[in-house]
Specification:
With 121 residues, this protein is an all-alpha fold. It is built from 7 helices and no strands. It has one domain (2-112): Serine Threonine Protein Phosphatase 5, Tetratricopeptide repeat (Alpha Horseshoe), CATH 1.25.40. It has helices at residues 2-28, 32-44, 47-50, 53-65, 69-81, 90-102, 106-112.
């Protein structure tokens, strides 16, 4: 009986630390920074195990569309490197990198000059 109780307590701790905060953040996200936080929490709680990659990306995308700088880079890098279940697609990343560059994000400007992602013709 003690091992069942210990397992139940461990499960409750798991849900309290990893599951619930991400779900609450995702359900209540309203501002760009809240969407970015929800995306981060969903992505870092083991989303590849729980199938939350797409949900995490949608929160980052909502924040990026509202010019949340960190989320712009998350979205651009997701397209560049195939994160969150996306296929690598530099042409989808380019508009996000250009938006980031226009906002003064140095990393975006550097990525646009990458001959790996954007070979010179």
């Amino acid at each position: 009986m003690p091992s069942v109780l210990a397992s139940l307590i461990a499960l409750l701790i798991y849900f309290g630390i990893f599951w619930a905060p991400a779900e609450v953040a995702a359900a209540t996200a309203d501002s760009p920074s809240e969407h970015a936080r929800a995306g981060y929490l969903l992505a870092t709680r083991g989303s590849h195990f729980f199938g939350a990659d797409e949900r995490a990306f949608q929160h980052f995308l909502a924040a990026a569309e509202a010019n949340h700088e960190a989320s712009i880079m998350v979205v651009a890098n997701a397209y560049l490197y195939g994160h969150y279940g996306l296929h690598r697609n530099a042409s989808e990343a380019r508009p996000w990198l250009e938006r980031g560059k226009a906002l003064g994000i140095e990393e975006a400007a550097k990525s646009l000059t990458s001959t790996y992602h954007f070979p010179k013709k």
